[in-house]
Every structure is written in structure tokens, then in C-alpha cells.
Amino acid sequence: MRVKRFRDLTLIEETPNKLLVIACDSCGAVGNKERDIVKVPPEVVGYYTARVALMEVLSVGAEIITVIDTLSVEMEPTGKGIIKGIEALLKEASIDTVFLNGSTEENFATCQTAMGITVIGAVEKEKLKANTSKQGDIVALLGAPKLGNEISYPTDEEICSIGDIKKLSSLKEVKEIYPVGSKGILYEADYLAKSNKCSFKKKENHQIDINKSAGPATVVIFTIEADKLSFVEEKLKRSLQIIGELIEGERQ
């Protein structure tokens, strides 16, 4: 059995033609407990923490097999609220909640919210959206970089939704998709380019802060041939921004 790392994903060769795709994420000090720094309902914690790992797995074209939550809080009432948020996300992504399992902390009382999430998916090797970009492809952006209280709860129309990334990953015109988190757009664009032995040339005069954290993956970037962008825009019914292109030569 071969195991390798790609971005924040673990890829396991289940068969010669099929890969297991695993992603995880964690969240702490966000919730409605005494020591939480960002005050939001438990449902929001569950929704946005699960969203990050789910988007990572979906971004490479995988189908979800299971979602596991590890909650460092009691089941009543905080855990139930977090699970409700995760279930809302799965429903939005058209994923049956039967795929969800997990555990809670029932031995000790907690004064701060914390949780982890693991998402496992599967994809045929030939359908894996990884290292398929090339020189001349444009790098486009969907969403807006936001974190913490900048995000409108329970929904924010400016950020990339789980439905958006499912549509993107289903389009053959879209080569690779990178969810953007705390490292920011520029970091991910440079990483994408380097992974394909190219350099990222950023477009001047765009109004997006490409160094800002995108929190719980409120932005995705993706590669595509320039003449295919309008088609994707039409399919998504969302406005897209070109932030740069892949050029020859790997940045040192």
C-alpha cells in the first residue's frame, strides 16, 4: 500500500486504480463557552470547521466516504450544536448524514470549545485533479478572504460555498482547485505553480488582498485555460477574478 502527501491531503493507494483521500482540520477558542475568544453558536463552529476538510477532499475530485468529528466538549448541549452544524453542511453538499460519526468529552467539564474533524473520500486515479496545470494557464479566484467575525453568519454570499466547489470539481475544464486558508492566496498560488514546475505571475491592479488569511477556506483558486473561463463563470453563476497566470520556470 503506497501512501503519499499532496498539499494538506494524505493519498492512500487502495487499488491500482483508486485512491483514498484524507483531510483533517481543527478549531479552538471559537464558540459560546466562557474562555472562547470568538463568540459564535456551536452550530457555526461545526459547519465551518467541517467545511475546510470537506472542501480539501472535494477539490481533488473525490467522493466522500465518511466524516469523523472529535469534539473536546460535552454532548449536551455544545456537542449537539456542533453536530447540527456539521449535518447542515453535509445536507448542503448532498451528503447523507449516515456518513457522520465521532466522539465527545464526557469525563471532564470544559470551559473552552475545541474540536477536530477528519474527512475521507475516494477517487479514481485518472480523475484526480492534482499536478495537471501547465504553463499559460490562468489562475482564477472565487470568493473573498475572510476570517472570524468578518464572516456573515449563518451564511455569507461573498465566500466560496460548498456547492461552488462541487460544481468546480465536476467540470473537466477546471484543472486544479486549491482551497485557501490561513496562509493566503499568494502562498497557495505560488505552491500550485511550483508543484507544476512553473512560476506564478500575479496580475496587477486587482483589488483582492492576496496575502490575507482566508480563514475557513472562504476562497478557492483554480487553474484553467483562458478561453474556458467564461464557460465556467456561466456554469457557476458567480463572478470570477483572474489573479495571475502560470509562466515558465520554477521560482527559486
TrEMBL record:
Residues 15-123 form the PurM-like N-terminal domain. The keyword Ribonucleoprotein does not apply. The keyword Mitochondrion does not apply. GO terms for molecular function: kinase activity. Keywords: Kinase, Transferase. InterPro entries: PurM-like_N, PurM-like_N_sf. It holds the Pfam family AIRS. This is Alpha-ribazole kinase. It comes from Natronincola peptidivorans.
